[in-house]
Automatic annotation (TrEMBL):
Family, per entry: Belongs to the class-II pyridoxal-phosphate-dependent aminotransferase family. BioF subfamily.
Record keywords: Biotin biosynthesis, Pyridoxal phosphate, Transferase
Keyword Magnesium tagged: no
Coiled coil (residue ranges): none
Name of the protein this chain belongs to: 8-amino-7-oxononanoate synthase
Domain Aminotransferase class I/classII large: 39-390
Keyword DNA-binding: no
Lineage, opening ranks: Bacteria, Pseudomonadati, Pseudomonadota, Gammaproteobacteria, Vibrionales
Source organism, top-level taxon: Bacteria
Length: 404
């Protein structure tokens, strides 16, 4: 039987056609467009991805270390460059040990697959990243999802557990689609009271929150396990988990994503360390982000309502579009309707501006949005161009309403 006639291929074709008809078709971003257009779709919050000093450092590290690690970290792939990065991370974030992974997705999956057994309980915020939710579904533990940032609901779920052998609570520092932050002090208190471990994925908080960009831990509470990534504010790639020696040693021994994967290139590890130094010392980058956020909010205040949260099922009559006021560089513009989102995105494309048109199932139904990501690399003129491109379409009837 050929590929075109197999039952599996026919099923794939049907599902692909359905996704196109629903207006949910995904396609890879055009990097050439990203270079020539104003880009508000990425996660380069500190503007480090194209920093000339890091580009030069990358060339130097490649000459020193070559292009690859050639083996797993437990074979011969772990070098002095990796060790130095781990030490820098521990110094910056205040943890005794760190372990490196090739991506945040791999780090999150390794964490939940490795630390949880069949008699354990896992509690996750409903808006956690797909890597965490999928890992929870596939792990042997029993997963329970609490309403977004709803600590009362989390307490209820914990109270209903029938003597699990152990519990793990997982949330995010900054949520990638809403740009809001988790109640870290409440999470710490609940974990302490229940005897659960608490893990925090701070992929979108690292670099942008705190005096030195230390992320969500700057808000006071320190999770037992901290997951950070290097492909967003730090502008490179990869991830790390920081925790006690016991937890890190356990991951080194049993995490398959670590043991059976080639280590990140040592040149990359050295470059991440350089990026951390810039993130810690160049405070103007975070100050610039704050100025951009204020300019954006003020520039659109006549055309939009601003709020700190959006509940799609609580009151579908609330005014749209709505710009969420967030403490992060992620500024979601909630449109609601898919067709209206396409109109907004089309207006930006005409102005050679790239935004993040985010649709279900990435976000809940009726919350299709333009995910505006600010960067320290943006100039005031870039923010002005974005505002001017949005004004006409937001003033029209095409960018309003939530479909049932």
């Amino acid at each position: 039987m050929t590929d075109t006639t197999s039952a599996l291929t026919r099923r794939y074709q049907d599902e692909l056609a359905a996704r196109q008809q629903q207006g949910l078709w995904r396609q890879s971003g055009d990097n050439a467009v990203a270079e020539s257009w104003r880009n508000f779709a990425g996660n380069d919050y500190l503007g480090l991805a194209q920093d000339p000093r890091l580009v030069k450092k990358a060339q130097q590290h490649l000459e020193r270390w070559g292009v690859g690690a050639t083996a797993s970290p437990v074979v011969s792939g772990f070098t002095a460059a990796h060790q130095s990065l781990c030490e820098q991370l521990c110094d910056w974030l205040g943890y005794p040990q760190a372990i490196l992974f090739n991506s945040g997705f791999a780090a999150n999956q390794a964490l939940l697959f490795t630390l949880l057994g069949k008699d354990d309980a896992l509690f996750q915020d409903k808006l956690n990243h797909a890597s965490l939710i999928e890992a929870g579904v596939l792990s042997p533990a029993t997963q329970r999802r609490f309403r977004h940032n709803d600590m009362a609901h989390l307490r209820q779920l914990l109270a209903k557990q029938i003597q699990p052998s152990a519990s793990l609570i997982v949330s995010e520092g900054v949520f990638s689609m809403d740009g809001d932050v988790s109640p870290t002090e409440s999470l710490a208190a609940i974990a302490n009271q229940s005897g659960a471990l608490w893990a925090l994925d701070d992929a979108h908080g690292l670099g942008v929150l705190g005096q030195e960009g230390e992320g969500s831990i700057s808000r006071g509470a320190r999770p037992d396990i901290l997951i950070v990534t290097f492909g967003k504010a730090l502008g490179v790639a990869g991830a790390a988990v920081l925790a006690s020696p016991t937890i890190i040693d356990y991951l080194r021994q049993f995490a398959r994503h670590y043991v059976y994967s080639t280590a990140m290139p040592p040149a990359q590890a050295a470059l991440i360390e350089d990026a951390i130094r810039l993130a810690r010392t160049e405070h103007w980058r975070r100050e610039t982000l704050s100025a951009h956020a204020e300019q954006l909010t003020q520039g659109l205040h006549e055309w939009l309502e601003t709020s700190t949260a959006f509940e799609p099922h609580a009151d579908n009559r609330q005014h749209l579009p709505r710009l969420l006021a967030t403490p992060s560089p992620i500024k979601p513009l909630i449109i609601g309707d898919l067709a209206a989102l396409q109109q907004v995105n089309h207006a930006l494309m005409k102005a050679h501006i790239r935004g993040g048109a985010i649709r279900p199932p990435t976000v809940p139904a009726n919350t299709a949005r333009l995910r505006i990501s600010l960067s320290a690399q943006h100039h005031k003129t870039d923010i002005t161009a974005l505002i001017e491109a949005l004004k006409p379409v937001l003033a029209s009837d095409k960018a309003c309403g939530v479909t049932a």
